[in-house]
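FW: tagging you since you asked about this chain on Friday. Here's the raw sequence from the shared folder, copied in full. Didn't touch anything.
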Amino acid sequence: FKVNNEGFVVNNQDDYLMSFAPNGTTVAEGFTEGVFSPLKITSTQGAPAGTENITTEVNLDAKELKPLSFTSVDPTDPTTYNHTSSITIYDSQGNAHIASMYYVAQTEDGAGAPGTPNQWDAYFFVDGVPFNTDGSLGDVTHDATTLDFNTNGTLEDITTPLGTINSPETFDIGPITSTNIDPALNVEDLEFSYDFGASTQFSSSFAVRDLAQDGLAVGTLTGIDIDDQGAVLARFSNGGVDVLGKVALTRFANSQGLAKVGDTSWKETVDSGEAIAGQAGTGNFGLIQSGALEGSTVDLSEQLVHLIIAQQAYQANAQTITTEKTIVQ
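HL: got it, structure written out here
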């Protein structure tokens, strides 16, 4: 098979490879069986996807104190916070942004001001701009998300004055208006589910154990994969995957009854029975092996030995005839 100038997958006789259309954007959503359509490679660019979920798992040092005379977090002044974690996220157009969380210990500071043990405040920024958990700008009052830890150092729960708490580890941030990040930016509002996972407060150095997000930048096509059940997937440099279709198979009650029409093609006859379409790996349909060319089932070494024996027999017979001819003469 090859791809023609219109993007359709065809063989050397320009016959189309038929497929079933996908029901959605994933293989798990299935395919529309019974309606054939030519398989077309249309995806040359992977669409971006805005970030919807962010996961951050850290260890906050239980020995650390609150910064002296703390008033607010200033990303340019490391004396206003204890630690920070950052991850690249994406908006609906695939633009990259830096989402940062700044951590401030709530224990007493070095001057002896009272504090709260086993508690940290986390402040959210996007590209250096402060935001509250409801998506509003935090330039006047920057509300923190409070992390409370158990006496054994595990995360007990989180609280936030404006956002929505989904679980003891997860809360929502947004919607954030894109023009508040950059006046020249006009994309869909940014909204995230932020998960602190199994963050801890142990008496050891600050460490970021996990950072993850599910957004995608714009990607370029890097390859086409076909699994053993015929699903055709376009893979992109941004990690995205497009489901293009599923190779349609056809079987016959009596495949030996098919009529050969040339160019390795066969057609239905009365003896073969009617064509039955279906998907690989279901019913009596076999699996598909992509990227492979079927080779001969003949044992070449064995046949070569037979050829040598036949050649020797022929030479012996020819020599017998030559001798007989000489005697007759």
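FW: The radius of gyration is 34 Å.
HL: agreed, and The chain has a mean pLDDT of 91.
FW: great, closing this out.
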